[in-house]
Each structure stands twice: as structure tokens, then as C-alpha cells.
Design brief:
The chain is mainly alpha-helical. The protein is built from 13 helices and two strands. The protein has helices at 4-11, 40-51, 62-72, 77-91, 107-112, 116-122, 129-147, 150-159, 162-170, 177-187, 198-207, 216-226, 232-245, and strands at residues 272-273, 278-279. Strands 1-2 form a two-stranded antiparallel sheet. β1 and β2 form a beta hairpin. The longest helix has 19 residues, at 129-147. Residues 206-207, 246-247, 252-254, 261, 263-264, 267, 269, 272 line the site of iron/sulfur cluster.
Length: 286
């Protein structure tokens, strides 16, 4: 079962409440003093922590993260969520018709052994179900062959050198940099990993925390360089929430009211022109 914190990035849904230091998902709260930030990026993340939460992450099922990612490709969350639920009901440890709903099923093993047309039918609501079912089975096969199943894969993600994990994940069909970083953060519990989704990419460049024309990887490098390791996880999730509430793609809060954004004092407003009401991607800013 993937909790809201992970679903947040994989499916762009935010946690329903401030979960700082809570028990759901383990981890511990990251203590900090906003007055003592060493960089502007750190000051921004500190302020986001005050506004939202300061949770640290880890302990999620790495293979399930990957399955969820594949299901969500080229479709909406609304369509992929039922497919995920159906898949888990049929092949996960709480389901499994083959086992009569028994427990202890290794998801990777169950999916490696799955009948492809049957899996395709199970996930049909996600669209592209033939291609996705083939990908999932191939991935499950690889996880079983190389790690002996999902537990071994979890161990690899949690304990191996992060760069080795990252490049292994990127070598898997259907896994991109954002997914690899989310698996490292939410399953591996790795500090110093700041996944960059579309919100983080936009906000970091608008604020001037990264060059205006930086690609996702460059934004990630800047944030991971400037934000202390223990703050990267909540920096990522809280920045996404901030993007939804204040700094949206088309209508940042400062456009109509310079006082409306709580982070205005840290922001260069690259590509945002309150005088004319115009907003462009930072890469296209004058
Ligand atoms: S001041 Fe405007 S552009 Fe800057 S973070 Fe706030 S809403 Fe976004």
C-alpha cells in the first residue's frame, strides 16, 4: 500500500494534513532554525517546513512504486488508481486469486508469473494495458532474477550506494529520473535526494534557486547542493503543495497582489510580470 506521501509525487496528490513527525510512514521530524539557513534554497525550504510539514520519508515498497509509475504513464490519476487497486487486489499480499486471497505473496513473484492477458485485463482502466502489462511482467521478472523478489529489491534500494541504485533504476524500461529519485526518497529513505517534478522545476527557476534555463537534472543538482540532506524530502513534497496553493503555472499568487505570497521575500519572480499580468516559463523570460 503506497501512502499519501508517495502518492503525492507519483500521482500529484498531496498529504491531507501536516504529517510532521507522525507515525504514518515512520521517519522523524527534521529540526531546524529558519534564522540560520546557509543558502537561499535552505531558507525557502525552512519556510515551506513552517507552512506545511517537516517530515522525513522512507520505508515504502520500492517495487510497488515502480508498478504504480508504469500504470500512471500517459494517463490520469483517476484512471490509474483503480488499475493499481485492481492489480493489488489480484496479485498483492492481501489478494491473489491463485492463493485464494492468501497472505505472504511476493508481488514481484506473482507478477513475474502472471498471465499477460489476465494482467492486461486487470489494469485495463489505466489505458495502454497491453504495453503496460508487458512492461510490468518484464520488470517483475528482472526483480526476481536479480534480487530474489521484492524484499531483496527493497534492501538494495535502502542499503546500496545511492548512485548505484539510481543508475540501476534508470536502466529499467519505463523508469525516468523523477521516478528513480522518488523511489530513493520514499522507499529508500535516502537523505539528500530532492526529486524534481513539474512544480519543483517551475518554482525553483522562478524563484532564482536554479538557472532560468535549467533542465530537471540541473535543478535537482542545485537543490541537492544547497539544501541540507535531511530537509530535501519535505522540501520536495512541501514545494509541490506550495505550487498548487500559491505558485501555480498560469497564475502565481503575486500576479495580482504582491503581498499574497508568503515566499515573496525570497523570490526573483523570473518570468512573472505583475505590471502586465503576463507569465512565461522562466527559460523564456527577458
Ligand atoms: S512571489 Fe510569485 S513567483 Fe515568487 S514564489 Fe511567490 S507566487 Fe511564485
Amino acid at each position: 500500500m503506497i501512502p499519501p506521501a508517495l502518492a503525492l509525487d507519483m500521482s500529484d496528490e498531496e498529504p491531507a494534513e501536516n504529517i510532521s513527525g507522525g507515525t504514518a510512514g515512520g521517519g522523524k521530524s527534521a529540526a531546524f532554525d529558519p534564522e540560520r539557513a546557509g543558502t537561499r534554497a535552505e531558507a525557502v525550504v525552512d519556510r515551506l517546513g513552517e507552512m506545511y510539514w517537516t517530515k522525513t520519508y522512507g520505508g515504502r515498497d520500492a517495487f510497488e512504486c515502480l508498478v504504480r509509475t508504469i500504470l500512471s504513464q500517459n494517463t490520469s490519476d483517476k484512471a490509474s488508481q483503480p488499475a493499481h487497486d485492481e492489480l493489488m487486489a489480484r496479485y498483492g499480499s492481501d489478494g491473489g486469486p491463485a492463493s485464494g486471497g492468501g497472505t505472504g505473496t511476493d508481488l514481484a513473484r506473482a507478477l513475474a508469473d502472471a498471465d499477460q492477458p489476465e494482467l492486461a485485463e486487470t489494469i485495463s482502466s489505466a489505458g495502454l494495458y497491453n504495453q503496460k502489462s508487458e512492461r510490468i511482467i518484464a520488470l517483475a521478472d528482472r526483480i526476481c532474477e536479480e534480487y530474489g523478489g521484492e524484499a531483496g529489491f527493497d534492501e538494495f534500494v535502502r542499503d546500496s550506494d545511492p548512485e548505484a541504485v539510481r543508475s540501476t533504476l534508470l536502466d529499467m524500461n519505463g523508469v525516468g529520473p523523477k521516478t528513480a529519485d522518488c523511489v530513493l526518497l520514499f522507499a529508500g529513505g535516502r537523505g539528500g535526494v530532492f526529486p524534481v517534478d513539474t512544480h519543483v522545476h517551475r518554482i525553483a527557476r522562478r524563484m532564482g534557486l536554479a538557472p532560468a534555463d535549467a533542465d530537471h537534472e540541473t535543478v535537482r543538482e542545485h537543490l541537492e547542493r544547497d539544501v541540507p540532506a535531511e530537509k530535501c524530502g519535505f522540501g520536495h513534497t512541501a514545494m509541490i503543495q506550495f505550487g498548487r496553493e500559491y505558485c501555480s503555472a498560469r497564475k502565481p499568487a503575486c500576479l495580482d497582489d504582491p503581498e499574497a505570497c508568503p515566499l515573496a521575500g525570497h523570490c526573483d519572480q523570473v518570468g512573472v510580470y505583475p505590471a502586465t499580468g503576463e507569465v512565461v516559463d522562466p527559460a523564456e523570460a527577458e
